[in-house]
Amino acid sequence: MPEIIAGIEIPDTTIAADATRAVAESSSPLLFHHSRRVFLFASLHAHTLGLAPDPELLYVASMFHDTGLHTPATDAVQRFEVDGADHAQRFLLDHGASREAADLVWSAIALHTTPGIPERMAPEIALTNLGVLTDALGVRLDDLAPEAIEEIVAAHPRGDFKNGFMRAFHEGLKHRPDTTYGTINADVLERFVPDFRRANMVDRVMNSPWAA
């Protein structure tokens, strides 16, 4: 019997079930609940915006979007969003999904913290970003029915989300500070790492080896 929260059906497929299990086992409870809320909020927004994402792909993107904060996907030091995207892409390919589907989810996760671009892309990409913005920042929360929000938070409690979320970002980024260049992730290290100095594009241009 499918699981339904706030009128949204959790995809009842092997891929979705395995994604739930994989993230539950590899992530913290705080990020697991956050990821499920991201899918639910994204799905509610899909209805109000008239978008029709593939529910399974939106679910996988939502569930894996923060996995890079915990487990690097490769030995390469890279942005946590790219780690999470690599995890999800490999997961989908291992489960027999098409390259097109895996690449779509990769883009949704890799771009989920990037302002101004995801909303112009495929529904799965746009909605992953919007679901994250709603749960983390409250963006467009007023567009959603209060009773739906209440049901989602009852099923997946926020707890001390704001502080816990910042701690998760700090722990996931402090050993790879250079990967935060040009991203909102630098905000976290600037707040919590006393000797962190944000790199900026102006310095990089002015200090380049070019004479002029």
Describe this structure in words.
- This protein is mostly helical and 212 residues long.
- Helix content is 58%, strand content 2%.
- It has ten helices and two strands, in the order E-E-H-H-H-H-H-H-H-H-H-H.
- The protein has helices spanning 14-26, 29-49, 55-64, 80-94, 99-110, 123-137, 146-155, 161-173, 185-192, 201-206, and strands at 4-5, 8-9.
- Strand 1 (4-5) and strand 2 form a beta hairpin.
- It is globular and about 65 Å long.
Short recap of the structure:
The chain has helices at 14-26, 29-49, 55-64, 80-94, 99-110, 123-137, 146-155, 161-173, 185-192, 201-206, and strands at residues 4-5, 8-9.
How would you summarize the topology of this molecule?
Elements: E1 4-5, E2 8-9, H1 14-26, H2 29-49, H3 55-64, H4 80-94, H5 99-110, H6 123-137, H7 146-155, H8 161-173, H9 185-192, H10 201-206
Antiparallel strand pairs: 1-2
Helix pairs in contact: 1-3, 2-3, 2-6, 3-5, 3-6, 4-5, 5-6, 8-9
